[in-house]
Amino acid sequence: MPPSTMPADDPTSPPDPTDRTSSSDADPGAPSSRRPTGPRARGPADPPDGPGGRWRALVARNGRRSGVVAVVTLLVTLVLGYGLNRLEFTTGQDNYLNSDSQVARDNVDYQSLFGGQAMLTLFTIERGADADDLFTPHNIKQFRDLQAELDADPRVQSTITPLTALEFTDNLVRSKNGNVLDSPAAKILLGAQSRDPDPGSAQRRLADSLATLKRMQAIPEAQRTVDNPAWVDFLLHDNTGAIRKSLRPFFPTPSTAQMVTRLEGNASLDAEGEGARIVERATSGLRFDHATAMTTGAAVLLRDINNYLRGGFLTLGAISLALMAGLLVVAFAVRWRLLPLGVVGVGLIWAFGLAGYIGVPLSVVTIAGLPVLLGVGIDFAVQFHSRVEEEAQLDRAGNPVMAALAGLLPALALATVAAVLAFLALEFSQVPMIRDFGTLLALGLPVIVVATVLLLTASLTMRERRRPTPPKDYTHGPLGRTVIRLGALPRITAIPLVVAAVAIFIGGIFADGRLTIQTDPEKWVDQQSQVIKNINTLRASTGSASELGIFVQSGDVFDDATAGFVGRFANAQLAAHPDDLLDASSLVTTISFMMEVPNTTVVMPTGADIRLAYQVAPPDVQRAMVNREHHALNLVFRTGSGSLERQAGVVDDIRDHVRPAAGISATPSGLAVVGTGLLDNFARNRVELTYYALAAVFVLLVLYNRSLVRAVLSVVPVLIAVGLSSIIAMLIGVDLSPLTAVSGPLIIALCTEFTTLLVLRHLEERRRGLGPLEAVEAAAARTGRAFLVSALAAVIGVAVLAFSSLPLLRDFGLLVALNVAVALLSALVVLPPLLVWADERGWVHRRGGGGAVAVAVLEPGLSDKRLISGQAATGQTREARSSGTPRGGGDAAGAGGSGPGAPRAAPAPGVRPAQRASRRG
User: Where is the composition biased (Gly residues) (predicted)?
Assistant: First the structure.
């Protein structure tokens, strides 16, 4: 049969609804100007009642009812949009610790006993003055007014000013009858002397006590007031002239003092933030003689992070929208080019509204989900929109939207499921905010894809009805040519590429082990912010800006065993960790340090000594140090400026080696333990999350393709991307934040999407009768624009986080955007030669028989292509072969000629012979 003739189709066979050369799928309302035939034929496709047919039919019906879709979209948007009001911004320990973990429970117990975060007010004494000069009559009044104001607020648990600490010492050396020997301090010191087993040591104790008595008696009793510099000097300094050891938590150096305000324990984020604001407001207007005051603390840091989340969430969203709009205007040369941005915007409202209803919190990590989902959503929307343009401009389908659905919907569905599986791998993290991030992405992406498909279908169907897209060959454009060149490696590179992929992946495993993890929340925020400057000032002035709390419980906190344990425990830890634990503050250490005398035997205070001290302690000291109702004592160490890893070592040492006597327990808690708990949770299975995501995606690809080879081909670029992400991080020397370090599943999701679309598009071109090389080049020429624009959208969606002032988000945006770009580039460069090499061996597109054949042939001198169609007709197939066209066929994966000796199809549109020749290998 001459190639210019077209045999009649079998009248008993149903029309192919996806055949672009048939009018069977044409929209009845479409204008007659739409040409029913296109420049190339469509191969076999699923019938309407086949796999996916019902979904495509449903989407197609919705596309023809644009008015109904608009009303439903508005209602759904209003309902789900209300869920945005239910989104909660959180920065508490629930983001870092599992609520059922022992560390979290211990911290809840600790805060219920002794209060929550500590607000620290630093008093920096001016040059030429010292701590004695801090207690002028004016300053004493300021301290007392401040104490009264803060004690009256229910959001404050306790307040210990420098004056409070000094008055505690004053109470210890006074007696009701005026006899110094009847004072609590004298009784305690005389008791220690009598219990000293070494006579020489006891004698030295007596000499030290006499020296103290002499200093005290040198000041007339009437002048023993805290506004007298001589009396302040006696109270503040020991017999050597140094600041008393028991007062160093409140007078860290001779030129500094600090007030410790303990906020209400286990308070909500808003209540804790308001408590911090109360303390800041109370101290901000005060002016002290010889000193300046500055207030800061962890509560201020967390409040500022929370405030940033509320404002930064919208700011990042606005920047993302602006950049995406610019990308679409500049690079996406199609009609209604901003439509993907609009439909994805609606999808984001649906996704985050649903997250609000479900209760997914917005933390410093999950806030990154907004630009990420926007970028991935634009990626998917551009792919679909571009496919519609392709069907209309290149193939002139009667219904380009339906044809696009038939061709692209399975690939989008597979890519979406693969991405969701990769995101769900984050659910295995031990860090709650990382799990929330995975939940948000896994929930949001399918919602956005559904919104994209439905709204684009309705919008573009309406557009094509009113004003059809005119034919145009865009395959010679710069984007299409770029994609062809990227994939132009000769097929002889296939084996080296596979070897390189495995080597890079293994190299990434080794590189990952050398990366450092930054889990200190102080490093997550803007280092130029005022709160960080204040914390750094506090640390530079006093040597510490954090604390390690230990709560000790026993049947009687005032018995000898408990007092002895706390005293010996504090001494042992200060001796074992001098750089990490600077000093200790508790009711027991106040007395035990007072009892210390150089070159004497260590004698621990008795329970009676501690009870005596408690009776004369100011009320705020009592609340901060003892909880009589729950039989608990508080011991607080000021920690040094070491890393969380060092603090974690201290905490682990305490847990592993401290063995209290029967009936006594000592539990580490407080801010340092929360930080080390985050470090432990984060490091426990961080690397495994990437492997879980990779394994889940690979299994899905094997099950879908029913081919191990196709699945392996799809993951080779993914292996390169995952390995390079760790290698790049090691080479540039960045510290991994919790967000950056779990970027593996995100990279896997994005790279798998692109490899999936490339492989399935290759199979689609093969089902049309093109050879392996021509199929790759045709796919590149036709989809190059979509792939590059969608790739840039995905990269920009992550890179927009670089505009954040939080290093946690900024570093994630920069590093992961680079990794995503590498991942997508590896897909475009590595996958094409692998596909050609494997397909020529019959491993990708398997031969099949008995399927429908649809081959396009161009008769010389004619502008239209004629369709040669047959239903397993050997004669027609023979004629197709004799005319130089490849065989067609069909099986589950698509069929057609394959192997090195398979006949080659006509050149694909937009692919010049020179381009094909460059790939012969």
Answer: 886-900
